[in-house]
Write a structure and sequence with these properties.
512 residues, alpha+beta, Flavocytochrome B2, Chain A, domain 1, Butyryl-Coa Dehydrogenase, subunit A, domain 1, Butyryl-CoA Dehydrogenase, subunit A, domain 2, 4 domains, 5-stranded mixed β-sheet, 20 helices, binds protoporphyrin IX containing FE, FAD, flavin adenine dinucleotide binding, Cyt_B5-like_heme/steroid_sf, Peroxisomal acyl-CoA-dehydrogenase
Length: 512
């Protein structure tokens, strides 16, 4: 039963202004801190200060804390009353709603702004997806960030009910006949903007490791089967993965072969009777590897590369890799020492073209990662804008300092430019044939340059960045953004790839 709150005047609160009898007003709510003062993480002295004890301490409080401190049950119960004739106006995290903070949302979600890219259906879809991620996924993400476990099966199951696992693979035949988000989008109308919306809403859960744990392995491990697997293989594996009964990952990288895919050393040779593959090798940095049931594995075979789907079985062992991502859901070692087994080849023609099976989804993978990191940057900017407005130094908000504004300006320009370019690329993807032209590949490779994001991370940390207090999200972003610089190919390799692709398109007769 909730406690009854008294209506109190400012004068009544002012009577409680000393050690042992200590009340404060924060945002028109009255808190009794008499017994809490000794437990206060910021110390007792700051609370008995004459400008705080018995006073309206709203500004002092928000200059040092996030709003959510007051929402924690152990602190919310310190409230004893409300100030007569005043109303609380401060809001914290909005569940399912749109942020009013400038640049807190992309322009298509900003009041008074327009976008040529998003239809009414995209907007309705975004609303529903945000509500789902805020209500169902966010609490799990926060809890797993603390206990270091992977996302709960309950979340996987709820996503499966809406067919979100299938939608995360983008538009295509795999959606045929499925009810998408309870019929909100027709399978044939689902496009890359719907997929962008899912990825950008997902990343708002604020935990980078968790986001990958939410079946990032499937996003890259299943497409080779969808695109090149035999009908029997698809009929067995795809429904298992879409219903989250089984998990899949992509096992390509090795300790000595990251961006250099052809440098892989894992081998697959046929057994004497020619019926089975015998596979040997070690894979590393395999997203979701340690809980995967299937491994879409790149192997060296006689005369080329072959992609083979290995089910978890005797001879396959996996071990998580500890990294800066706290949730236990990202990368792992996979040791493959197989006797003749039931592994199945995924073919796109002759065995030598296994590399095309591997590469075929790389650009989509890079685009997904750009969607995610661009949105993560927006979230961080929102944190910073809030903080530089509420945090005071030299008697004024941080935002009154020109140098702080200049940093924010640089981040705004970078982020809005990225989102604008990303939406343009997404529009081209919606309207081009399955085989993207070089120019689009160049765009995706160049967009993958995440140097900008790392600079934002560094600047944000200067504004707000203590994991225990004001800036856990910023600290998390700063700690984990480095991963985004190597996924789908190291950023320098991709940057170079973009320029090489552009050079290939140079007209032979172009001269100054
Ligand atoms: C309901 C009232 C309050 C509660 C529940 C509360 C709670 C907390 C908590 C949990 C922290 C640890 C850091 C964090 O999680 O943000 C903290 C730190 C702190 N608090 Fe409070 N606090 C309250 C009021 C105040 C007030 C009125 C002041 C006055 C100036 C104050 C000054 C500080 C300081 C200086 C720190 C240390 C900040 C830092 O290390 O950066 N607190 N408080």
């Amino acid at each position: 039963m909730s406690k009854e709150l008294k209506e109190l005047t400012q004068e009544q609160v002012q009577q409680h202004n000393k050690d042992g009898d200590l009340w404060v007003i924060i945002d028109a709510k009255v808190y009794d801190l008499s017994r809490f003062a000794d437990l206060h993480p910021g110390g007792r002295a700051v609370l008995v200060d004459s400008e705080v004890a018995g006073q309206d301490a709203t500004e002092a409080f928000y200059g040092l804390h996030r709003h959510e401190v007051l929402e924690r049950p152990q602190y919310a119960r310190l409230q004893v009353g409300v100030v007569r004739g005043e109303k609380s106006v401060i809001t914290g995290r909005l569940i399912g709603g749109l942020s009013k903070v400038p640049y807190g949302e992309p322009t298509y979600l900003t009041e008074g702004f327009h976008s040529p890219y998003y239809t009414e259906n995209h907007r309705v879809f975004q609303k529903a997806v945000r509500k789902f991620f805020d209500e169902v996924v966010y609490p799990d993400a926060q809890a797993r960030e603390l206990d270091g476990k992977r996302p709960s099966q309950e979340v996987f199951d709820k996503m499966a009910e809406l067919n979100l696992h299938a939608m995360r693979l983008g538009p295509g035949k795999h959606l045929k006949g499925l009810s998408l988000f309870n019929g909100l989008v027709k399978p044939e109308e689902f496009d890359y903007f719907h997929e962008l919306i899912i990825t950008q809403e997902l990343i708002r859960t604020g935990s980078r490791g968790y986001a990958d744990g939410l079946l990032g392995g499937k996003v890259i491990g299943l497409p080779p089967i969808l695109n090149f697997g035999s009908p029997e293989l698809k009929a067995k594996v795809v429904p298992e993965v879409f219903s989250a009964k089984k998990f899949i990952c992509l096992a390509i990288s090795e300790a000595h072969a990251g961006s250099d895919v052809l440098g892989m050393k894992t081998t697959a040779v046929k057994s004497e009777d020619g019926k089975y593959w015998i596979i040997n090798g070690e894979k590393k940095w395999i997203t979701n590897g340690h809980f995967a049931d299937y491994f879409t594995t790149g192997c060296k075979t006689e005369g080329g590369l072959t992609v083979i789907l290995i089910p978890r079985q005797e001879g396959v062992t996996t071990k998580p890799i500890k990294s800066l991502l706290l949730s236990d859901c990202r990368n792992s070692f996979c040791h493959l020492r197989q006797r003749p087994s039931s592994s199945r080849e995924i073919r796109s023609g002759p065995r030598t073209v296994g590399i095309f099976v591997i590469l075929s989804n790389f650009n989509h993978e890079r685009w997904v990662m750009i969607c995610a990191s661009t949105r993560a940057q927006r979230m961080i900017m929102e944190e910073c804008l809030k903080w530089i407005s509420q945090r005071k130094a030299f008697g004024k908000p941080l935002s009154s300092q020109a140098v702080v504004r200049s940093q924010s300006g640089a981040d705004e320009r970078a982020r809005e430019a990225l989102q604008g370019w990303l939406e343009n690329v997404t529009y081209q993807m919606c309207n081009m044939q399955a085989c993207w032209p070089d120019r689009l590949l160049e765009d995706v490779a160049a967009l993958s340059m995440r140097k900008i994001l790392r600079e934002t991370a560094y600047r944000s940390l200067e504004d707000v960045g203590s994991p225990d207090g004001d800036g856990p999200l910023v600290e998390h972003y700063h700690r984990t953004i480095g991963f985004d610089s190597i996924l789908g190919g190291a950023e320098d390799v991709l940057g170079d790839l973009g320029v090489r692709q552009a050079m290939r398109m140079m007209p032979k007769n172009a001269r100054l």
